[in-house]
User: What shape does this take?
Amino acid sequence: MPIKLHNALSRKKEVFKPLVAGRVGLYTCGPTVYNFAHIGNLRTHLFEDILRRVLKYDGYRVRQVMNITDIDDKIIRDARAAGKSIFEFVKEYETAFFEDLTRLNIQRAWKYPKATEHIPEMIGIIKKLIKNGLAYEVEGSVYFSIRNFKKYGALSRLNARKLKTGDRVDRDEYAKDDVQDFALWKAKHDADEPSWSSPWDEGRPGWHIECSAMSMKYLGKTFDIHGGGVDLIFPHHENEIAQSEGATGKKFANFFLEGEHLLVDGRKMSKSLGNTHTLRDLVAQNHPPLAYRYLVLTAHYRSPLNFTWESLAAAEHSLERLYEFVRELRAAPPQQKKSRNDTSFTGALLRVKKQFAAAISDDLDMPRALAAIWSFVRAYRKNPERFDPHVALKLILDFDRVLGLGFKRIQSTVIPTGIQKLAEEREEYRRQKNWVKADELRDRLLAAGFTVEDAVDGPRVKPR
Ligand code: AMP
Ligand code: ZN
Assistant: This one.
């Protein structure tokens, strides 16, 4: 089924066509590793994960590149405050970032290039821009001349006449009111600032140039899809386009996909507002990371999503019910197997398959895809005798290639006899009021992947 994606360049849904049949080059802006990622950042990475999973589900081979920003204003500031070298400082957060990805079932990109390892490539682009009359040097720093790049502002729909020209901005992040010539290369100011030699003064690159250098190095001058959060449209993505197209004279990325924000009380979750939560905070409150993944799937990626603990708990509950369904299917006795020519069964199966494919191909409409699954679960529950549980299970596991909710790991509700025995031993200790031993056995059950609830009629063992 052709995939339609909303292209920020045209502000329309367009049928996705790759440059090379069957392959997709995808670049997504990565983290600045100066702190733990917050769940707003992770929402964007979850949307990008869904994007690549949908493309893969449709048969494409996806090459995704995500940069790791290991040098920028904030890193220099915070490493200095922590009394650490930049390298030492970013390492911890880089490791934590990959842990978060793993816990959220986010598939790994093809490459995670680091800014500090691509300085020569960045210098190469800056030299080309100077040659093309689009950049100029001032006291050892180099700036991009937005006046000389006619397309400047096309992505973010800036009014070109309002552009201030000749004024310069050194900060990496700035708002639309501050549209000015931005820094490509920053001359070194402080003695303890990390720096590299260059045809200009010794210094370091601006933030925007790193994405131009690393995307084009690994994906070519023109590639298929560029992704990130909406806050990056201006100035970051706008500047990436200006630098790349200004240097090569070719179109940079065919599609720009921008994910909406995670909000808290109606405001963007962000470090500067002090309203962030990390995945670690969620886990500390006993929420499994995949409950957050489910929560993110309940909103379309182009709709803002307001985070509340209640909505997270509701997502967790829904996910648990889906796991319950998977357990039921796994445990269903073989005699429930139905012949494939039972028309109501094939009808329901075909319907959910079609609905799921239609939803994900329509600009990654995951809420609709989930709704299709839920209506299938209801149809199954209403008339289980009509369904072949094994075929239903296969279908659900196939959907999970896109959802990534970990259905494969969910085992049937049949409790192994060894586990059942442990639970009974624990019950015996409890009767003897030997709480230490009882707790010890509970921990062993937990380690084996089971929880035990103390119901009135005795212990009830459940897979975690
Ligand atoms: P940063 O580490 O701040 O450069 O951001 C990494 C990614 O997270 C970028 O793609 C941002 O657009 C995205 N991002 C930042 N804040 C939010 C938020 N509240 N909701 C969703 N995405 C965000
Ligand atoms: Zn970027």
Summary: The chain has three domains: 16-259, 279-409, 417-463.
